[in-house]
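Risk register update: the risk of archive-format incompatibility is retired. Evidence:
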Amino acid sequence: MPYKLLYIVGATLATMTVLWMASALVSRVFVRRYIRRLLNSIGKQQLPNFSAERVTSLPRAIQRYLHYALREGQPNIRYAVLTQRARFRHGANRPWMDVRATEYISGMEPGYVWDAVLKHHTLWWRTAKLGYLNGKGSGHIKLFGAIGLQEFAGPETDTSMLFRFLSELVWLPTGFMPTRTLRWEHINDNAARAIIVDGSTRAEAVFHVNDIGEVERIVTESKYRDTKSGYEPVTFTLHCRNYSEVEGVMIPLEVSFVWNQPSGDLEYGQFKVEDITYYYH
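Archived output:
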């Protein structure tokens, strides 16, 4: 009898392992397909190189930023691939988890894919995919890469993901040149408002630029916090620091995510760019 019980337990565990592996493999296939769709959607048209003449109509703060971030004649960046190391938490009294991520982000039409592994500790980890493509935001979180825990979709996700694309163009500054989806409004010598519209989805953010020309922080109302009761709009600030030159482009190697709540600020994400590769064609 004990041998029969051991056999049943062993067979059950083996079946569960096979099912988990199959589910994780299917999930990875879908993520890779999403990445291919993103890269295939990015326009291949040749855009003019950066020049001082191209930015004279922009707000003074953004002119100063682009002159700082880009050299004269800088080719237009079509897309970039980043590897990131980060820490993330769900609340002030919640533990930090380690994050390793790869991000594919367009420098032209709005679009990106963030593909990450979130580790609480060695035996407990989750995968996350967040993305924006063809006017829609989407995402999921899966336990051990296979068991669905959370899905993201809907108007609030669309807006939040479009804002994320806009803010993360600090890593591809040629994308801040005016396009059919992006325009700028002057606020003062150190701030300008970006308005990005993609189909029926719209996001706004205020870019604060210091005297050097660095974007120090980006503040928005176009980001929704996911709570147990649903999505709620909360003021959000992306802080940028540790600027460094990569292929002639000045970018922040570190950013932090902060919810500006009525009860006080909550820093919930700390990200470092470990590597970035630009693609021009």
